[in-house]
Amino acid sequence: MKVPSIGHSARASSPLPGFLVFFLTCYVHSTESAQFTVVGPDWPVTAVVGEEIMLPCHLAPRMSAENMEVTWFRSELSPFVHHYSNGKDQNKQQMPEYQGRTVLLKDGLTQGNVALKIFSISLCDEGRYSCFVQDGVFYQKALLDLKVAALGSVPRVSIEDYQDGGIRVECWSAGWYPEPEVVWRDLNGQAFPSASITNSREANGLYRIETSIIIMENSSWNLSCLVRNTLLNQEKESTLSYISDPFFPKVNPWMASLGVTLVVLLGSFALNVYLFNIKGKSGCLCLVSGWRRLAFPIEEANVTLDPDTMQRDLILSEDGKRVRWADTRQPRPDTPERFDTVHCVLGREGFTSGRLYWEVEVRDGQFWAVGVARESVSRKGWMSLSPKAGSWAVGQWGDQFQALTDPVTSLPLHPLSRIRVCLDCDRGQVTFIDAGTKAPIFTFPPGSLPGEKIRPWIWVLDTKTELRLSP
């Protein structure tokens, strides 16, 4: 009988050699896997809502990751944010909120760059991410934090009411993340204490801030509301350029009410007789305090618009009272007097002395401005609509109503049908009043206007807008 060999008998009766073969195979394969470290940033990465962001990650030492598996996770290991293997993206089990929003930059794989780009950042993207890289049985990972920020709207500043012996000024802004800082300060950078600050989360998760401050008579007349995103180290600011002395009440409002009543009863007859006897003059309600107005003689100016100054996209009525923006450029000569770029027109009349007023009727439209300009205002090229360029005006820009200061001063937006422009050449001051309600709109301070001829000024940038002078 043939005696079987010992080697054959051992292979047939024991699994040990097969286990050794399997172990040695895995060991050899593991020793063939690349040895590396996955490196991410040591600091949080900051992204802006609505924009894109690159999450940096690379191998050290630098080596190709083309044949490796690269997976980006959130705090859980499954599902994933983005997965790459076998030379292409494998995103069938990708988190739904990241579908179509992630890209692994393939151009950098040969240098070991496994950075991930995320598009259309939202607040939900904020948090910790894991960059996981595997080659065979060897793997490494790096963690990084993503911070999300949003820069909100330009603050809107408005004068609201009397309070505690002063004037309450309010400021609000929306669309911020994280919760912003709010500071009131004067033009020297000195901070004012706020009367109140309210921060609230809106439905989209962004913050809206509302703050107010009480301005006393002896306080600085120039102040600004500044809102700062501390994560982005960026800020937005609006300035309230001027609050005149007469805004401040001199006596207790209840006592003033009694006094005013007596004055009106005793003096109304004498005042009307006085105004009636002034030839060529009329009573005009002009602003001398926030909710207190005084009628004094002021000349009603019959102004018209000068076609020789009108920009060629505008159309003027034959009587020179109505102006609107045309659909096509009009065939007019490009003379030195004509505005060639900015869509505005000057009045024919110019004034150097006296007190006078006129009214402008606003019909529809959302892009317009009315006011005055100096005779020497630049007519060629672009100009800023501000006192620096030689115009003093208020106007509407879309859903914003503004005094065209430098920078602009936001005003409460409410329906306006007629604006009264009160010009005091002797004091170098112009005041705007809602001719329908007699409510004050804005006053440029005394001395604002230059010592030269001042002319009515109108700007139109909307085909739906028609502005009409009266009377």
Describe the protein.
This protein is mainly beta. Helices cover 10% and strands 41% of the residues. The protein is built from three helices and 34 strands. It has helices at 6-13, 16-32, 253-276, and strands at residues 37-39, 45-48, 53-55, 58-60, 69-73, 82-85, 88-89, 102-104, 116-118, 127-135, 138-149, 156-163, 166-176, 181-186, 191-192, 196-201, 207-215, 223-229, 234-240, 282-287, 293-300, 314-316, 322-325, 344-346, 355-363, 367-374, 391-397, 400-403, 409-411, 418-424, 429-434, 440-444, 454-460, 466-470. Strands 20, 21, 22, 23, 25, 30, 31, 32 and 34 form a nine-stranded mixed sheet that branches. A six-stranded mixed sheet has the order 2-11-10-5-6-7, with no helix packed on it. A hairpin with a 2-residue loop joins strand 27 (391-397) and strand 28 (400-403). The radius of gyration is 36 Å and the shape is elongated. The relative contact order is 0.09. Mean pLDDT is 80; it is low at 1-16, 18-31, 244-251 and 269-296.
Q: What is the CA-CA span between the terminal residues?
A: 135 Å
The profile of the biggest β sheet is:
9 strands, mixed
The total count of strands amounts to: 34
Oligomer: single chain
Poorly predicted ranges: 1-16, 18-31, 244-251, 269-296
Cα shape: elongated
Structural class: mainly beta
Percentage of residues assigned to helices: 10-25%
- Number of continuous helical runs: 3
The radius of gyration over CA amounts to 36 Å
Strand content: 35-45%
Average pLDDT:
80
